[in-house]
């Protein structure tokens, strides 16, 4: 379990399947992830979900995001495509519960996951792909220290590639300590060690 200021990142459980299924079937959330909404039945999904939990991949770590305040499962995050030779991994996040949007939960989840990756793995670079038009996500990632490093197109969608390096962490920490800390998640990496 990884604890941030607003969220706890915990291992995925079969009890998360209901929320995950609803979020994956939601057309608006699917659009934000540049995928089609899920079309399989819940029963099929739970079977697939159970297999994925039982046979976890060494190439990724998935977490449920719970709100510390009320213990509610509000989203998911992960790092995946772990490349031990190049010491890099890709990051993904989704806050599926809209009532938690715009309140700093996503920023806290990203900073908590980044802290874990840099403190507990040999990864030196974390990167991500975010849709070019998704300014809200880009703003969150910038708050967490990511910078734009390129562009790519996948499945007909244009993405901004962003990255964060372990070696940048000291300067990001110094910048965040010099800034006032609000409760809305607007300060970059306020507690990454």
Kindly list the characteristics that best describe this protein.
193 residues; alpha+beta; Aminopeptidase; eight-stranded mixed β-sheet; 6 helices; globular; disordered C terminus
Major sheet: size, sense and barrel closure? 8 strands, mixed
- Distance from first to last alpha carbon: 17 Å
- Strand-residue proportion: 25-35%
Strand order across the biggest sheet? 1-2-3-4-5-6-8-7
Structural class: alpha+beta
How many E strands?
8
CATH homologous superfamily classification: Gcn5-related N-acetyltransferase (GNAT)
- Compute the number of structural domains: 1
Number of helices: 6
What's the CATH first level? Answer: Alpha Beta
Q: Specify the helix fraction band.
A: 25-40%
CATH architecture: 3-Layer(aba) Sandwich
In angstroms, what is the radius of gyration? 16 Å
Helix-strand pattern: EEHHHEEEHEHEEH
Shape: globular
CATH T-level fold name? Aminopeptidase
Low-confidence segments: 177-193
Report mean pLDDT, rounded to a whole number.
86
Protein architecture, described:
By secondary structure, the chain is an alpha+beta fold. The chain has a single domain (2-178), classed as Aminopeptidase (3-Layer(aba) Sandwich). Helices cover 33% and strands 30% of the residues. It contains six helices and eight strands, in the order ββαααβββαβαββα. Strands 1-2-3-4-5-6-8-7 form an eight-stranded mixed β-sheet, with helices on one face. The radius of gyration is 16 Å and the shape is globular.
């Amino acid at each position: 379990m990884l604890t941030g200021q607003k969220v706890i990142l915990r291992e995925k459980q079969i009890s998360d399947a209901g929320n995950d299924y609803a979020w994956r079937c939601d057309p608006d959330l699917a659009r934000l992830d540049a995928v089609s909404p899920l079309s399989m039945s819940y029963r099929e999904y739970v079977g697939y979900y159970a297999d994925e939990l039982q046979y976890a991949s060494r190439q990724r770590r998935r977490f449920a995001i719970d709100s510390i305040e009320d213990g509610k499962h509000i989203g998911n995050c992960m790092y995946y495509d772990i490349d031990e030779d190049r010491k890099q991994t890709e990051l993904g996040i989704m806050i599926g519960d809209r009532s938690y949007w715009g309140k700093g939960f996503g920023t806290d989840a990203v900073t908590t996951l980044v802290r874990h990756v840099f403190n507990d793995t040999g990864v030196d670079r974390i990167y991500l792909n975010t849709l070019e038009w998704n300014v809200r996500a880009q703003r969150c990632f910038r708050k967490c220290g990511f910078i734009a490093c390129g562009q790519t197109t996948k499945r007909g969608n244009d993405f901004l590639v962003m990255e964060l390096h372990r070696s940048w962490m000291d300067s990001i920490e110094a910048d965040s300590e010099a800034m006032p800390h609000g409760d809305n998640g607007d300060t970059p990496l306020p507690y990454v060690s």
